From TrEMBL:
InterPro entries: ADH-like_N (IPR013154), ER (IPR020843), GroES-like_sf (IPR011032), NAD(P)-bd_dom_sf (IPR036291), YIM1/Zinc_Alcohol_DH_Fams (IPR050700). This is Quinone-oxidoreductase homolog, chloroplastic. It holds the Pfam family ADH_N. PANTHER family: ALCOHOL DEHYDROGENASE RELATED, RETICULON-4-INTERACTING PROTEIN 1, MITOCHONDRIAL.
């Protein structure tokens, strides 16, 4: 099969098209013919070798962790899927090796779900990684409740686009940051309050809206944004960062429960997310579809941190 691969770490010039062999199918796996994948910031971080201490890697590596496509084979122990099913998945495995910028992938049944029936495969490919990240952070970790206020940094990105909507479905008030050009977009996602982080004082702006501090911070930005976000949270509040481990001393000082979340594959949660989408409670982010042959350019652009919503790659070698 054709795939984008890299056999050494580096900038986007290490990416190349190659013919590779699909590994044998295990009993508990399905083979998916990938129609679309999507670009996530982690793709470039892995390509550059930044995650070698955190995850096991085996070169050559096919990048990519999002997939939407059709099941073409099922292992003997698979009970939930049949050939022809249209599915989506977050395809991270124990070892970083066989990813989704490829024509096929074998995936554990437990990581896969039927795609939302109201979405095309192209839109479905934009959801798994960012959807699961937002879902696990807001609900499994921060336990966001109805009536609470959440401050979400980087609302216009892939993760932020889903996090804003999940928080609104839960009945929370959402405060979020983006540059002004993205504020209309944030409103279409349901954000109650939008703040331009490039102008003025973000902490003062949040405190004007929530004078006692917010109940939950969901940080999808890190760095200076996370430094500021600490100052917006109430004592006893919860902070989740998906970009860097939060400072434990600061958490103790401020009386805040602070956690780093690294998203886990879950077909069961993708099924819940599909139900929210099919019920029209959650919509897809803005999607820009490109060819997988433009993967290097798409990763370079994604590294600029200016993407509104998601860039989806069509598997059209
Ligand atoms: N731990 C995990 O499991 C996990 C999972 C998913 C993602 N992540 C990480 O989370 C981060 C976000 O991921 P993503 O997919 O949402 O990224 P993304 O889609 O590439 O984010 C781009 C967006 O970030 C916004 N942005 C950039 N700097 C900002 C700032 N200082 N304040 C507010 N907004 C800012 C931009 O809005 P403007 O154009 O308006 O500036 C743009 O819309 C990345 O670092 C990614 O690696 C971690």
């Amino acid at each position: 099969m054709k795939a984008i691969i890299f056999d050494k770490f580096g900038d986007s010039s290490v990416l190349k098209t190659s013919d590779i062999t699909l590994p044998d199918l295990n009993n508990d796996e399905v083979t998916v013919a990938i129609a679309f994948t999507s670009v996530n910031p982690v793709d470039a971080k892995i390509r550059a070798g930044h995650l070698v201490e955190m995850l096991s890697h085996k070169l050559p590596i096919v990048p990519g962790w999002d997939v939407a496509g059709k099941v073409t084979a099922v292992g003997s122990a698979v009970s939930s899927f049949k050939v022809g099913d249209e599915v989506y998945a977050y395809a991270r495995k124990a070892e970083v090796h066989d990813g989704t910028y490829a024509e096929f992938i074998n995936l554990s049944e437990s990581a896969v779900a039927l795609k939302p029936s109201t979405l095309k495969l192209s839109a479905a490919a934009a959801i798994p990684l960012v959807g699961l990240t937002a879902h696990q952070s807001l609900f499994n970790t921060a336990d966001l409740k109805k009536g609470e206020t959440v401050f979400i940094t980087a609302g216009a990105g892939g993760v932020g686009s889903l996090a804003i909507q999940f928080a609104k479905v839960q009945g929370a008030t959402v405060i979020t940051t983006a540059s002004s050009k993205n504020h209309d977009y944030l409103k279409t996602l349901g954000a109650d309050h939008t703040i331009d982080y490039t102008k003025g004082n973000v902490v003062e702006s949040v405190r004007k809206i929530a004078p006692q501090g917010v109940d939950v911070v969901f940080d999808a930005s890190g760095g200076d944004s996370l430094d500021e976000a600490w100052l917006t949270i109430k004592k006893g509040g919860r902070l989740v960062s998906i970009v860097q481990p939060p400072d434990e001393n600061k958490a103790r000082e401020l009386g805040v429960q602070a956690t780093f979340v690294f998203v886990e594959p879950s077909g069961a949660e993708l099924k819940e997310i599909a139900q929210l989408i099919d019920a029209k409670k959650v919509k897809t982010p803005t999607i820009n579809i490109r060819s997988v042959k433009e993967a290097a350019k798409a990763q370079d652009e994604n590294e600029q941190r200016k993407t509104q919503g998601k860039v989806v790659l069509a598997i059209d070698f």
